[in-house]
Every structure is written in structure tokens, then in C-alpha cells.
Amino acid sequence: MAKEPARILVTGAAGQIGYALVPMIARGIMLGPDQPVILHMLDIPPAAEALNGVKMELIDAAFPLLKGIVATTDPVEACSGVNIAVMVGGFPRKEGMERKDVMSKNVSIYKSQASALEQHAAPNCKVLVVANPANTNALILKEFAPSIPEKNVTCLTRLDHNRALGQILERLHVPVSNVKNVIIWGNHSSSQYPDVYHASVVTGAGEKPVRELVADDAWLDGEFITTVQQRGAAIIKARKLSSALSAASSACDHIRDWVLGTPKGTFVSMGVYSDGSYDVPPGIIFSYPVTCENGSWSIVQGLPINEFSRKKLDATANELVEEKALAYSCLN
């Protein structure tokens, strides 16, 4: 029996990340090679013509799994019946803009998109927020879509997780599939904490801790962390455009693992609603190590946190508490 098509919403679909993401979804990279999809693409009215061009290309690519396309500037039409929503659209920070200006623009965007999802998405719709500030945009969306379960609203830190894996494999010259259990804690910003204290590498002699194999704590506690934190800026400097390809790929990874499950013994990083685990303040969207099974995630519990890590977790949590306060001041 052929599967029912899944309806997947991509907002900001005519932008750089959207343009990289929609063919990946249509090719089965997000939900697997046997899951048909109907793509719902939303963008703002000034991008309507470009959005139509993306639709034309999707038609021309003749993807076997793609069973329909909705390309629209109407949030109600875009959100109707969607099972998965990937929120890529947002207001980018422009030169000379204060954080509060960017936050204020995004708060109003995410408030209105939350109500469209709340009223028109399929029951149990899963939401992934990509647009920055991703954690706080996701929190605003959660607040204004109360009927969407809090466990169904997440933000993308898998990009940072994959960047951390990339730095380890470059250093050790091993396949990426052999490295597991790096963690991104906290905010998808330069305060995030890429942690390898629990990470390991599968070698011919069994699993070995990353720290033992790298054998350079100064690098792991210094340059490695800053490289991952600032990788997005480095790519903008090199490409003169933001990291669209890797963001799109990691969005597929995030949803695929969430829906289809993580491999046994492996955890991944997801920005999820904090329940107070690891002494992180509850009520913020915080990146944790998680495992996924049967379409839901669980925070990995009981990992020892040393003093170095504790300081890093507290710093990124404090930034998120401040961001939350700033977002709420924009609402008022």
C-alpha cells in the first residue's frame, strides 16, 4: 500500500535556504525514499514571482515523490492541513539594526504564523523553527499556538551539531558516521556550547572518547568551540551569502531523526522546550541532547556536567532568559 502523502510547509520558500531545502524534501531526504510529499511553500507578496519560479523548477525536476505543490503568499492556505512546518522565513538583521528592532519584527511574524498554524495545521503538526533568533522565535510560536503540544515546537541547532561533527572529522580524518554524541547546549547564537565530553569515535579497536583521540584539550576547550560558534559568520565572509545548503541539510536531519528515530546509543541536538533538566531555567527553548523514538524526542538524562561545562551552560541559558524578556517587551 502506498503511503498517504505528508504535507510539509516551508516558509520563506523563495529564499536561499528554502531554495536549497525544497528539492531535498521532494527527493525524500527528509522523510525517506518511500514517503510521498505535498509541498506547501509560503513567502511574502514581494517574493511571489520568485516563489512561482521555484514552483516551476520543482515541476520541471519531475520528483517521483512530489505529489502536489501549494505556492502561496496566504498563510491560511499555506498552513492548511500541514503535518510538518519548517519555519525558514523571518526578518534578517540588517546593518545598523539593534537587536530589539530585529526581535520586534520577528515577534510579530511568528505571532501571526503561530495563529495560522494553530487554526489550520493538521492535529499533531511538528514545527521546526530555522529563522533567527531561532530559539526565541520558536518560543513565541509556542506561546501563540497553545493547542500545538509544546513537545511539537522545536528549533534548529542540528546545524551547529553537524558543524561540531565536521570539525572533529577534519581533525581526526575519520568518516562522519563514526563520530557520535557531540552536544550543542543552549542558544543558536555565539553563546552556544559545543560539548565533546560525551562524544566518541568508532575505531577498529572499538569506541574511543573524542578527547582521548584528539589529545589536545586546549584546542577542544578553545578554538574548536569558537570555530563552531562562529562558523556561520565565516561562511558569510567566504561566500558573501549565508550558509543555505548546510542549514537545509541539517533541517532534513532534524526532522528525519524526530520522525523516524535516532540510532540506538546515539543522541542528537535539538532546541526544545526546557523542563528544567540540567538546572536550565524552564520555559525557554534550549538546545539539549535528545534521543527520538516513535515520533517524539526525550532529553538524555544523567550526563555528568563538569565545572567548565556548567559555566558554559549557565551563560547560554542567561542569554536566552534575556532574549525571552526582550521578546515579551516587544509584545507589550
Automatic annotation (TrEMBL):
The keyword Thylakoid does not apply. Residues 157-325 form the Lactate/malate dehydrogenase C-terminal domain. GO terms for biological process: malate metabolic process; tricarboxylic acid cycle. Substrate binds at R93, R99, N132, R163. Transmembrane segments: none annotated. NAD(+) binds at G12, A13, A14, G15, Q16, I17, G18, D43, N106, V130, A131, N132. This is Malate dehydrogenase. It comes from Pinus pinaster (Maritime pine).
